[in-house]
Fold:
Amino acid sequence: MVPSRFLSLSLGGRQAVRGRMSVSTMLLFSPRRLPRMEGGAVVILVTGASGNVGGEVIRAVLAAGYQVRGLSRHSAPGVPAGAEVARGDLNDRGSLRSAFAGVDAVFLLAGYPEVSGLLAEMRAAGVGRVVLLSSGAVAGGDLDNAVVRFNVVSEAAVRDSGLDWTVLRPSGFMSNTLQWIPQLRAGDVVREPFADVPIAMIDPYDIGAVAALALTSGAHNGQSYRLTGPKALHAANRAAILGAVLGRDLRLVAEPDDDARRAMGESMPDSMVDAFFQFFRRGGYDDSHVDGTAARLLGRPPRTFGDWVRAHAEAFR
Structure:
């Protein structure tokens, strides 16, 4: 498993801090039913439903008035209230047939095996559209890099699927900062790998908003969108902004590369560890460039890191 502080380059992030959805909420919730692509009610399936990005996609699609089915391998906690919960595992195509039934569009995470088979299952079930969460690292990336390769393979499969498609290529997620919580519970010092690398981090809220546009409108078919936040930040910048909101004097300490490599190697294969060192130590990926696509699509500036911190401050208290 890849640590979620790196998942913006890989599988899209994991669960932050979410409220539990009660059974009564699920039964009583009745979203506004909008015209279906072929007549009827639109149903949108969101994979990674309990993750930071998937949760924001669900909330954005619900806010637009569509029915949402959130795919979960295990249980409902973590899936935003108002979404139907479907059990299934993207590593097991046979577990997904009921989840795909009656679905018009799917928000899909990159990097799962046999992605072409997954897409074929969707098409056979009548799905018409897929929005893929990929990575900005694919543009001009080295296919010998494991992270670049699985995102490129997923993108190619989507383009060849026969479905309408849109690809989202975000920069690093602001929500990766949630990984600091255990350290902040112990004190005011945060150790972070690659702390000297600036990243134009994006709020998953904005990714969710763009994904909702692409899932519910054919205007984005065949497009690949690079999505970034409004400013490139170092880890020390994030610590200063977070500390100001929390009223704490936080100090960022750069984790030495040898320590980072050992720590990363405890939770991911060597090929993945090498991929991130190739990105951030050998110049394989510049995630500091600020792109205006998110602002153009949303009709407003993307959220700042300060906006994200204020929205999630309670998670750090």
About this structure: The first strand starts at residue 43 and ends at 46.
